[in-house]
Write a structure and sequence with these properties.
The chain has 186 residues and is α+β, with helices and mostly antiparallel strands. Helix content is 34%, strand content 13%. The chain has one domain: HIT-like (HIT family, subunit A, 2-Layer Sandwich), CATH 3.30.428.10.
């Protein structure tokens, strides 16, 4: 890097920053901010999508399973095919507001969702988590929801970054039907 480059603010060596270099390459995906900033706003236009979903038929609400205090549905904006959400019926924003019954059922439904996804989609692993609050990346931050994202050894590619397109091999309705059919009876 030339001295001119170093002063213009565009190119800087990582070694010039505080901390110890970690050896990771960074692939920045600022296009995700469009969803974070506006995707949730579009959903909120008709109220909370997680309060509205249980009022619909399973097919229309993309609901895979209904429990006593929580339910499982497909993510309308999935990272991968089969991306599930586990939501309490009650409109609460954070995990610490959940009752003991809700916490237990969210955990049990998450475990069952993992088993069903493993059986139906033969995934190799999972990303599981909750983003609580807009600052933490929650697209719908007013209603608690746990993500179950199935992952495959070969699912990482540059298609979403370069083409701003996510390749999903199945339609949401087809995924919902296969997962709901494989969900164990009580």
């Amino acid at each position: 890097m030339s001295e001119a480059d170093a002063g213009d603010g565009r190119l800087e060596e990582a070694s010039a920053f505080a901390g110890v270099p970690d050896g990771f390459q960074r692939l920045w995906t600022p296009h995700r901010m469009a969803y974070i900033n506006t995707g949730a706003d579009a959903l909120r236009g008709s109220g909370c999508p997680f309060c509205a979903a249980p009022q619909k038929s399973d097919a229309d609400g993309l609901i895979v399973h209904r429990g006593k205090s929580a339910y499982v549905l497909l993510n309308l904006f999935p990272y991968n095919s089969g991306h599930l959400l586990v939501c309490p019926y009650r409109h609460i924003a954070t995990y610490d507001q959940a009752s003991s019954e809700e916490v237990a059922e969210i955990g049990a439904l998450t475990q069952t969702g993992m088993r069903v996804l493993s059986e139906v989609s033969r995934c190799d692993g999972f990303n599981i988590g909750m983003n609580q609050g807009a600052v933490a990346g929650a697209g719908v931050d007013e209603h608690l929801h746990q993500h179950i994202v199935p992952r495959w050894a070969s699912d990482a590619n540059f298609f979403p970054i370069i083409a701003r397109t996510k390749a999903l091999p199945q339609l949401l309705g087809e995924v919902r039907e296969s997962l709901a059919a494989a969900w164990p009876a009580r």
